[in-house]
Each structure stands twice: as structure tokens, then as C-alpha cells.
Amino acid sequence: MGRLAGKVALITGAGSGMGKEMALLFAREGAQVVCADRSGMQDSVAAAIGEAAVAVHADVALSADVQNMIKLAEQRFGRLDVLVNNAGFGGGMAPLHEQTEALYDDVQAVNLKGVFLGMKYGIEAMLRSGGGAIVNTASAAGLIGWKNHSVYGAAKAGVVQMTRSAALEYAQQNIRINAICPGMVWTGLVKASAIHATPPPDARPPFGVAMGRWGLATELAAAALFLASDEASYITGVALPVDGGYVAGH
Length: 250
Ligand code: NAD
Known about the structure:
With 250 residues, the chain is α/β, with parallel strands linked by helices. It has seven helices and seven strands, in the order βαβαβαβαβαβααβ.
């Protein structure tokens, strides 16, 4: 029996990086998976899984898209048990006065409002079916200060606090809400940045990661699986660093 046998899971940002690994892992663990992304790459991820998956185009910053992806989960698979609000982007690193208002709005819309919308409509679906588990992808940058990441860090700190408060609101309605806080993980988001051009194992993370290496998307998927599964049945309101000891050392 898989750890998500019989469950219906929806993952945003499922087209690449951590979201892709979550979709593949959750399916291997028995879940039916809705793969949501705005990139188009969700189609090949769902195709690789096969009948247990469906792809949907969704921009998590748009209410209509979020409502549509939740409705698809219910229509195709009958309900929603697990929601991973994982879609996000960094927005580039720069001192605060060099960050533009347009970029600020975009970073908050995707990283923070996107999680709000996912939870708002996902929780409605879970209340309809009697419960569920939500995992939000925050960041180590939402737990500690991170130079040149003030706008992104503010959005991710918002995700952490929204996770904690919402967890209290639904704790007695059988909905658990937790966050994972990745440190430095080798994904498209990082690879796109020229300063990190050398791939692992040669590349070293630029900051003080205690384990001295990048995290892998599969390691983040494993943490999300644990929090999404019944193994975490007494865990809610947690913001779990998955960061090779980065936050512990700061
Ligand atoms: P990634 O770029 O490989 O994957 C992110 C996915 O999200 C992409 O497929 C992208 O198309 C999708 N996406 C972005 N904006 C979207 C939107 N508005 N609607 C729908 N889909 C959207 O990056 P990743 O590293 O796997 O990122 C996953 C999450 O982890 C993000 O929330 C990111 O902020 C967070 N994170 C990453 C790191 C890291 O080191 N990689 C560290 C901390 C937090």
C-alpha cells in the first residue's frame, strides 16, 4: 500500500523542479494527481504518470484559474485530499531600493496571494469531503533574513504565518496545514541564475549550508509527502526547514 493510496492530490508548479518530483512521487505512492502549472510543462509530467494524473493550465495568481483547478480535481477524481501550494518564483536578487513596484506586485501575487487562493478554494473542497492535508512551499528566506531577497522573503514569511494561523482555524475540522521551507535546492529557479551556473556535485551553495551541498528536488518532495500523508496525522501549523541545516546556523 502506498502512503497516499486512494488520495487525490493537487500540486501547483508541477511542471518542473520540486513540484514535478512531488507529482511523480505522490503518484508512485498511490495518489491520483492533478498537475497544475502555467508553463505548459505540466502536460508531460501528467503524461509520464498516465491514467492517475491530469494536467491543468493554471496561474495561481488568478482566482478563476485556481477555482478551475480545484473543480477539475473534484470532477475528475471525486474530491480533494491533498493540496500542495508549491508554485512560486524568486523575482531576482537586488537591494530593496532597486526592486521595482511591478516586480513587488508580481512576487506577492504569485508567492503569497497564490497560496491564499489555493487555500481558500482548496479548504472549501476539503470541508465538503470531510478533511485533508495542505502543504505550502515557503522558503528559508521566510524564516530568516536573506540579503537582496527582501521582497521574496516578505512573501514567503507571509506564507509561513498564513500557514500557522489557518492551521489553527481548521485543526478541528480534520484539515492539517503545514509548510516546507526549502533552503538552496538545485532546480530550474536556481539554474536560471547565472551565478549558479555550475551543476552539482561540483557546485557549492553560495551561502553557509551546514551540509555543504545543494538540496535536491527529490528531497523536498519526500518532506512534502511525509506532511501530506497520514504519517503526519498529529502535525499541523509547522514550517519545516528542509535546508541541510542552513536555518539552524543563522
Ligand atoms: P522551478 O522554477 O523549477 O518550479 C516552479 C514551477 O512553478 C515552474 O514550473 C513554474 O512554471 C511554476 N509557476 C511559477 N509561477 C506560477 C504561477 N503563477 N502559476 C502557476 N505555476 C507557476 O522552481 P522550484 O525551485 O521547484 O520552486 C518551487 C517552490 O520552491 C517555489 O515556491 C519557490 O519559491 C520555492 N523555493 C525554491 C528554492 C530553491 O532553492 N529552488 C528555495 C526556497 C523556496
